[in-house]
Amino acid sequence: MAAKVKLILATGSSFLAGIYCHKQYNLQKSNLNDPNENYHVVKRPGLPMFGTVSAASPVAIMSPALTEPAVPLLPEKPKDLIPAEPPKGYSRVAEIMRFGFPGFDNIRSRRDYVVSYDARNRTAHWVFEHLTAESVKKREDVDRTISNFKEDKSIHPYFRSTLADYKHSGFDRGHLAAAANHRMNQNLCDETFLLSNMAPQVGVGFNRDKWEHLERYVRSSTKIYRNVYVCTGPLYLPKTDPESGKNYVKYQVIGSNNVSVPTHFFKVMVGELEDHQLELEAYVLPNEKIPDNCSIASFQVPPDAVERASGLLFFDKISREKLARINGKQV
After folding, report:
1. N- or C-end of the chain: fewer Cβ atoms within 10 A?
2. Does any domain span residue 173?
């Protein structure tokens, strides 16, 4: 666990500043390991705050998509067991989606990640990845600088984002599945540059800074966990109008295809230790310039707050009793 603390400390200062950083966090080992410590979470505007994870409560969801999944899955495991790792060579999608699909809308299976595409907003509902130390290891024959952004021809032209939409928009083409997460070969890296894996992100202070710090932290987690499963996506959260006192969801669109600019982004990850214990972490970051001295840990939120805000259920094949920690705190 000491190595994990060092990774968290490396992502930024433990003192928060300005609108995001009004609390001081002590990220020493005692805070993360001692169940008697009071671990605080900063409340974000528009994000409902709840203290449990969805898998804690068995909820039956009746949906045709559940009986007819988009890809073949392994047979159901008893509810008291953690779903086993698929046999080598069984299915890459089965490996990635081992702990369940967050939703079943417009799913596209890539060679090394899975995306659920949002045709209305011209970006993804979510993107799912499975990372290991081997898959994120740097390789001389894999170079992201030679990869090109390109339209996703599997998406109908009516609902597709284009290169022209982003041009002169003032926003970066922000990866949801990070290119540096897919280094097994150049083709896998290239596939992360499909525009269906992009969303408009503020550049300086977010995509090129704090968001990249979070991506790097997730990759570094493979030094601790044998498997890391991570779900990433956009959020469109309400703000209170100061004049009327009413809540509104307001966001910009760019380009002739009206590509939506998310107000926030989330990452929810599960790490599996060598002894098969599971630890879950959830983050929500605002899509705006964030002070560099804000620590990544200050953006942790209860997992079901992200679920309620996104309309998705994360890792629903894992019961709460099988999670050793949530956001660094013992369950």
Report:
1. N
2. no
Per-residue pLDDT band for 75 (boundaries 50, 70, 90) equals: very low
Tokens (6 digits) for 304:
């079901």
The reply to whether 189 falls in a domain is no
What is the rounded CA–CA span in Å between residue 216 and residue 10?
10
Give the C-alpha separation, 187 to 299, whole Å: 33
Is residue 40 annotated as a catalytic residue, yes or no? no
pTM for the whole structure = 0.79
- Say how far apart CA 144 and CA 130 lie, in whole Å: 19
User: 10 Å Cβ neighbour count for 41?
Assistant: 19
Alpha carbon dihedral 46, 297, 100, 312, in 10-degree steps, equals 0
21-65 per-position pLDDT tens digit? 533 333 322 232 333 333 333 444 445 444 444 443 333 322 333
In a domain, 310, yes or no: yes
Q: Give the whole-angstrom CA distance, residue 176 versus residue 126.
A: 8
Domain count, the chain: 1
Identify the CATH number of the domain in which residue 253 sits.
Answer: 3.40.570.10
Q: What number is the average pLDDT over the span 150-155?
A: 97
Specify the 3-state DSSP secondary structure of 206. Answer: helix
Integer Cα distance of 119 and 106 in angstroms: 8
Domain span at residue 20 reads 2-137+201-330
**CA–CA dist 218, 28 (Å, integer):** 19
pLDDT mean across residues, the chain: 82
Catalytic one among 130, 175, 213, 264? 175
CA distance 128 to 178: 11
With respect to residue 79, please indicate whether it lies within any of the assigned structural domains.
Answer: yes
pLDDT at 135 over 80: yes
Please give the C-alpha separations between residue 19 and each of 33, 190, 213, 300, in angstroms, as whole numbers: 28, 37, 19, 15
H helix runs in the chain, sequence order: 2-10, 29-33, 64-67, 92-96, 163-166, 186-191, 210-220, 303-310
